[in-house]
Amino acid sequence: MSQLLDTEISRGLRMDIGLSMADYRVLAPLSEAPDHRLRMQDLASRAHWEKSRLSHQVRRMESRRLVRREECATDARGAFAIITPEGLQAVRKAAPLHVARVRRLLVDVLSREQLQALADVCETVVEAPAER
């Protein structure tokens, strides 16, 4: 189910806006962050990615002018990812389409009881003290 939803949502983002799911996973938190910037390590954590994966993704997105990277003045090892006006415009177009697609593929096909059961299961899995 997870793979099917991810594939369909990714396909929709690419067709509607020209963004990949990876692009969206970077742009969405940046669009909501104060000053539209996050430390790279915080962004990697939010995406559940290794720092190297995020670094490669940000580099690809920089070439498309969706984000830019800025060194941290107080920490020579740190850097910020910052959404550009083009990136902000793209995610603002993508977000309502993304929400509508998730609703159509998941929310609308489940009953209220099924949605509650799914929410309960998801909460249990996320909060489980699994080895991470």
From TrEMBL:
GO terms for molecular function: DNA-binding transcription factor activity. It comes from Streptomyces lucensis JCM 4490. It comes from the Bacteria. Residues 1-127 form the HTH marR-type domain. SUPFAM superfamilies: Winged helix' DNA-binding domain. InterPro entries: HTH_MarR-typ, MarR/SlyA-like, WH-like_DNA-bd_sf, WH_DNA-bd_sf. One of its GO terms (biological process) is response to stress. This is MarR family transcriptional regulator.
